[in-house]
Amino acid sequence: MNPLDHYDYWVMIFLAMAGLFIVIARGNLIKKLVGLGIFQTSVYLLYVAPGKIVGGTAPIVSEAFKVYSNPLPHVLILTAIVVGVATLALGLALVVRIRESYGTIEEDEILQADTAQEPEKQ
Amino acid sequence: MKGDLILRVMAKLLIPFILLFALYVQFHGDFGPGGGFQAGVILAAAMVFYAVIFGLDNARRALPDWLVETMVAAGVLLYLMVGFAGLFLGGNFLDYFVLDSDPVSGQHRGIFWVEAGVAITVSGVMLKIFYMFAGRGTEEE
Amino acid sequence: METLIVNALLTFMVVAVVVLARTRNLFAVIVLSGIYSFLMATAMVALDAVDVGMTEAAVGAGISTVLLLGALHLCKSEEAKPAHRPWLPLAVTAATGLVLVYGTWDLPAFSDPEAPIHKHVAPRYLQDGPRETGVPNVVTAVLASYRGYDTLGETTVVFTAGAGIIALLRRRRRKEEKEGQ
Fold it and tell me: Residues of B with CB below 8 A from C54's CB?
């Protein structure tokens, strides 16, 4: 089995794990959102790459071409891209509100401020 | 950036072409790459470009808040109306075959209006999000 | 040759993400994410997904970068704090990655015409799509006609995101005037 046959899957797994690492290991909220975006984008690769046929063309039917790449993953990923940007926009709006409430966007400082407030409330 | 001459001149030259390209992508989505989503985002990008160069107040005067908020809802409503038109004309929900005498031109009509609805909503939402983010900073000061 | 181009683009993306994970300056992080999105859009075009490439370039590299820069300006934060030694997250992600690699061992090779993905629904769309809908672009035909219901749901998702942002970020003008008095 030629290892290069699965290179696109392995790159996708590496990108997904890198995005996951940024989300769970970094404390800055904006960087976490960027990491989440990287995870989402790597999934697009997982869907589109198996549909490609070398020597084919884009799935726009015309007289000159016989072999087309698979159009079905393209449709699903179009929806996924727009949903991804909607998620990013809502996440950023929440980060802006958090910044106005707590004065910081570092996760550990926010947790400290929360645990400092809770004994006062009780 | 109002004082920067090169940026103002280039923006005045480029923005009409960007808007025209957005319309091209919208209507030629049937024959080449493109469609509602891409056209809506390019339209919003042209307005963001205008707001960055000429100021948010000028952009708000060109496309006021109430218009953008109406666009956000109008696109989804247009999509639903196409669906209900299929229902009223005797077919299923979102059935395009009954929209015209010939099934294929019924499909053409359905796809045209549906893509228009998608473009209106997407451009409205992207522009509104930009207005909210940019406007919040200036109101704080 | 096409495979070589695709593999080279994928390698550049890996490099961009590794640099992004190690950078602390948030402005550089946002620029690198824009670079990553452009590389992804180019890879999509190399994989014959032209609609997806155009959307990823416009949305991922355009609007996402604008929104991130806007949020960065509002948060007025410049640098992330230095991370603690991230051994546990590194171990967890490495273990998950290895399990996933083992899972993809039996998947079909890149650009295999006999793969199951090309068997059932896709040939029907490619053959009957232009004839039934009159639209040569099969992706638009499937998106707007065959799977129009899903596109209605997606437009509703975009609408909901817009409504959510309006609800989160709207200023209450009358309340502020009352507090001023």
Answer: 25, 33-34, 38
